[in-house]
Inverse folding.
């Protein structure tokens, strides 16, 4: 589990194939300011919001293996570049964001990223199937960052939601690199996922049997 509070911005330094075109990739990630002194092989680290397992370590860097399935369903893990990093949550840690599993639910598309006063407005189009989990003042994870939804609009081609990014968030995460058309990793709120499941199960149980 994670909190969606980015601990450091690192960088994918290299991407090496693990086999043929259908295989995954090994990523070498420079940890930046992320403290690796308490990290061991087998630990989980979220990279751009995707939970990955450390398979090797060196001075200031760590390696992870990313399956082809994960590469096909995420953005920003298939090439060199800056990435948001967060170590797995410990039970004694503060929950500054919200409970995050590190499992990407879908890809969104940035519609707008522009300054508004001292902050930035980030507007994203989410897939239709994720729209029912997004709510005003609810939580969502974008590229590993826990954020609060400011507005939601259901449209024919999906669901567009907006977020207000304070200067600190823009400064200390990779969200400052976004632009219209960019793809982003989305994870819906864990509680919303369970509420939807309970409601749908209750509705099914209420249907009269024939």
């Amino acid at each position: 589990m994670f909190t969606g509070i980015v601990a450091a911005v690192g960088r994918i330094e290299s991407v090496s194939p693990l086999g043929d075109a259908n295989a995954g990739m090994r990523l070498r990630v420079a940890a930046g300011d992320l403290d690796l002194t308490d990290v061991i092989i087998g630990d989980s680290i979220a990279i751009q919001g995707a939970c990955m397992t450390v398979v090797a370590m060196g001075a200031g860097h760590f390696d992870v293996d990313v399956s082809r399935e994960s590469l096909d369903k995420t953005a920003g893990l298939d090439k060199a570049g800056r990435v948001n990093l967060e170590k797995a949550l410990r039970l004694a840690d503060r929950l500054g964001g919200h409970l995050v599993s590190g499992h990407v639910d879908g890809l969104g598309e940035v519609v707008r990223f522009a300054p508004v006063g001292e902050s930035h407005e980030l507007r994203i189009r989410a897939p239709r199937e994720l729209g029912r989990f997004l709510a005003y003042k609810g939580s969502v994870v974008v590229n590993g960052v826990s954020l609060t939804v400011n507005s939601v609009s259901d449209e024919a081609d999906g669901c567009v939601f907006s977020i207000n990014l304070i200067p600190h968030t823009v400064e200390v995460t990779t969200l400052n690199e976004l632009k219209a058309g960019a793809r982003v990793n989305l994870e819906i709120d864990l509680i919303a996922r369970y509420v939807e499941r309970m409601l749908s199960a209750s509705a099914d149980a209420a249907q009269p049997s024939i």
About this structure: DSSP finds four helices and twelve strands in the chain. Residues 8-87 form a domain with the Elongation Factor Tu (Ef-tu); domain 3 fold (CATH 2.40.30.20). The first helix runs from residue 68 to 72.
